[in-house]
Structure formats: C-alpha cells, structure tokens
Design brief:
By secondary structure, this protein is mainly alpha-helical. The chain is 49% helix and 10% strand. The protein folds into 2 domains: 49 residues; 30 residues, no CATH class. The protein has a two-stranded antiparallel sheet. The longest helix is centred in the N-terminal third of the chain and has 21 residues. It is elongated and about 90 Å long. This is IS66 family insertion sequence element accessory protein TnpB.
C-alpha cells in the first residue's frame, strides 16, 4: 500500500517534534544534539523556527487608553510684551538662550 503525502508529513512532523522536545529537555547545544543524532543543523534550525507556526492566529487586543498622547503646548508669558508657545519636543537650550535675551 502506498503512503499518502499527508501521512508522510505527519510522520515527518512527529519526528521533528520528538527531536525538538528531546533537545529542549537536554543540556546540549543545537549543533551538538544534531551531531549526536545524525541530523542536519540547518534542517533542525528550520523546524525549530517553524515549530507551531501553522496554529498561530492574530488576536485583537483592545487598548484601555491611547498609547501616546502629546501634551498640549505651553504658553509662557514674559512681561506684557512676549508670549512664547512651547511645543512638545522643544529644545531646552534654545528656550534658555531665548529667555536670557528677553531678560536683558
């Protein structure tokens, strides 16, 4: 009786699941485990990376609050002549220099 492709895939999947579980349970490096069991390091790495990816799904996670909200700009009044609007991300050194000039 000829095996079907899905049967071959299931056998291959169980083979790699077994080896990945054995490797994780032991204390060997990936390369050493492969050497001792006659496995290709490259193929082992492929199966390690793709393990369980066919059962992944995306789940929407609702946010309780906005992730990032920019603060409202500040207004700084200097005497009765100047009002300085300070936006988020302003340069503190530039503001300090400006205030020194206005203070003269």
């Amino acid at each position: 009786m000829k095996k079907t492709q899905s049967t071959d895939n299931e056998v291959r999947q169980k083979f790699w699941e077994h080896h990945l579980a054995q490797w994780q349970a032991g204390g060997l490096s990936q390369a050493e485990y492969c050497r001792r069991h006659g496995l290709s390091v490259k193929t082992f790495g492929y199966h390690k990376r793709t393990k369980g990816t066919d059962s992944l799904c995306l789940v929407e996670v609702p946010l309780a609050a906005p992730v990032c909200s920019l603060p409202k700009p500040l207004s700084l009044t200097v005497g009765s002549r100047y009002t300085i609007r300070i936006e988020a991300g302003f340069d503190a050194d530039t503001l300090r220099d400006l205030l020194e000039v206005l203070d003269r």
